[in-house]
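Worked example

This section walks through a single chain of length 221. The input is the sequence exactly as stored; nothing has been trimmed or padded.
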Amino acid sequence: MNLLQHSLLRCLYAAALLLPLPALSSTEALLAAAERGDTATIRKLLDAGTPVNGRDERGRNAVLAATQEGRTEAARLLIERGADVNAKDTIHDSAFLLAGARGHTEIVRLALAAGADVNSTNRYGGTALIPACHYGHVDTVRLLVKSGINLNHVNNLGWTALLEAIILGSGGPAHVEIVRLLIEAGANVNLGDRDGVRPLAHAVQRGQDAIARMLMRAGAR
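Given that input, the structure is written out below as tokens.
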């Protein structure tokens, strides 16, 4: 490249930097406001006619964007204005499913009141309850087990919520309480994984003595 060509490229690059950035669409602005938790802007955009369930290129609606960032008040406002808590993005997350997985209990509560499909599943074939058990979200589990959710749903790995709490849990206080909640709610303590290994065997194998004792008291074999 000669000096003239190099100078020309530099001028073109400098000119490009001066070009105005394309304006956000109203849907993009709504999702950005949801991510920030900017309820004033959300309200203004919705009042101006921005669709509450508009999607971005990832398939997200604004309530899912708010949930991803843990913006409870933004999610509350969007749900009040008709946001679809069951709408899934391109990786099969919805506001309800993700709130369960992240332990955003208040958003789960709002989603349930707005008609969340409790037996909808994520990309792993699991309900909102299963990852909540995995990650030790006690308050979220306490809420979900009373929602009518299928306690014995089996995900793509062949695990129920109880199995996931044991296999992927730490065996510490949070997971002990989650197992107690599942048993109390009526989870099947003898439903094994795809190899037929039952919850009690998994607990014993992992040295989860408190969980093993609870399972045995509940009739686990």
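What to look for: The mean pLDDT is 93.
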